[in-house]
Amino acid sequence: MSLLYNLGILFYGFFIRVAALFNEKAKLFVDGRKNWKKKLGSAVDKNASYIWFHCASLGEFEQGRPVLEEIKKQYPQCKIALTFYSPSGYEIRKNYEVADIVAYLPIDTKKNAQEFIRLIHPEKVFFVKYEFWYNYITELKRQQIPLYIISAIFRENQQFFKSTPWGKWYRKMLHSFEHIFIQNETSAQLLEQIGIKDYTISGDTRFDRVAEIARGAKKFEIVEKFRGNNVTLIAGSTWKPDEELLAAFINNSSDVKVIIAPHEVAPANINRIQELFKKPAICFSKADISDIDNYNVLIIDSIGILSSLYQYGNIAYIGGGFGVGIHNILEAATFKLPVLFGPNYLKFKEAVDLVNEKGAFPIQNSTGLKATLNKLINDKTSLQNASGICKKYIEKNVGSTTLIINKVFNKK
């Protein structure tokens, strides 16, 4: 199985180099790994002690970030090496000031794994949520360097839990972890079935992250004036199907103001969104505080401020549910906003939990969106109840970071 895996990695490396000739993301993937040994060797402080965090992309980085930053705070003598697999993570966080080294993870060949670990020589290693790279895991185990995975979540259909030859081979990787920090009881039961006892149900570190974001939220006077005393809907990380549904509702509603922060902020997409609305709409970059209260729709045509904007809302709509899956709902819920989203949410534990608790509401079409929004807007008791549910859900799930650090560093 190892031979087949390694051949697959070599073929993948070849095809990604071919794709780089035509695809910008693939080009970033390839170019970012060129001369990695030389670049890493010159960046490493050979006299320092490193803790290595690896994240697939930006979402996993945000998940691991609370643990990374708390370790840096409590153990400032340790240096942090942070790696990404995807350009969408690395390119945004390559200048992240808390990490001493930020790099792409070299492709998972045996030689790359040996060289990378030799250069970093980490004391401890944290993989976040999903990453399982055979050669890196094997080499860390061989060198007896403790490896942890945090905020992991397992499902029965994953390879680890199948009785196939591939399943048994993948399962060995889980046994190489020093300890596995998982999100839920279902994951615990699956690990027990394959004989893994070194786990802790620690929850999801994203709750700690969103709570921290809420405490440090930026203020926007212009957004506060835009909102006024109106019920305000914050639509975050939206895609075309979401935007068309929202526009149909807003164009026939006189009681709501909307702040829409699309996933894609290219000018052509912003123009398309603006044309959807019959009500007065303006882009954030062009808004003026002197007349902002005359508009019904505020379109956010920049990135990096959405998490702070939720403080100005009463209800949130999170995009992606009519595509491959919804975006982050916790950033809205931490501000006590009931959350609406499309039907593709079942892979996200927090969404399923809040739907069951009546703090979140999946919608299938424009009829469902209209009915749900009208109920929350016109029935103050329903809005307050859903808001309270979101608040309590966040409060009861914070604390994962402390639990992980206490376990890893043997603190009581």
What does this structure look like?
The protein has helices at residues 2-19, 24-31, 36-43, 58-74, 87-93, 110-120, 134-142, 165-174, 185-193, 206-215, 221-227, 240-250, 267-276, 306-309, 330-333, 349-357, 366-378, 380-397, 400-408; strands spanning 49-55, 78-84, 101-104, 124-128, 147-152, 179-182, 199-201, 231-238, 256-262, 281-283, 297-299, 315-318, 339-341, 360-362. Helices cover 47% and strands 16% of the residues. It contains 19 helices and 14 strands. The model has no long low-confidence stretch (mean pLDDT 93). The chain has 412 residues and is of the alpha/beta class.
Shape: globular
Give, in spatial order, the strands making up the sheet with the most strands: 3-2-1-4-5-6-7
Q: Any idea of the CATH topology of the largest domain? A: Rossmann fold
Largest sheet: 7 strands, parallel
Based on helices, strands and strand pairing, what is the structural class?
alpha/beta
Distance between the termini: 41 Å
Q: Classify the helix fraction into a percent range.
A: 40-55%
Which residues form runs of ≥5 with pLDDT under 50?
Answer: none
Give structural attributes.
412 residues, alpha/beta, Rossmann fold, seven-stranded parallel beta sheet, 19 helices, 14 strands, globular
Topology:
Layout: H1 2-19, H2 24-31, H3 36-43, E1 49-55, H4 58-74, E2 78-84, H5 87-93, E3 101-104, H6 110-120, E4 124-128, H7 134-142, E5 147-152, H8 165-174, E6 179-182, H9 185-193, E7 199-201, H10 206-215, H11 221-227, E8 231-238, H12 240-250, E9 256-262, H13 267-276, E10 281-283, E11 297-299, H14 306-309, E12 315-318, H15 330-333, E13 339-341, H16 349-357, E14 360-362, H17 366-378, H18 380-397, H19 400-408
Parallel strand pairs: 1-2, 1-4, 2-3, 4-5, 5-6, 6-7, 8-9, 8-12, 9-11, 10-11, 12-13, 13-14
Helix pairs in contact: 4-19, 6-7, 17-18
Enzyme class: transferase
EC number: 2.4.99.12
Pathway: Bacterial outer membrane biogenesis; LPS core biosynthesis
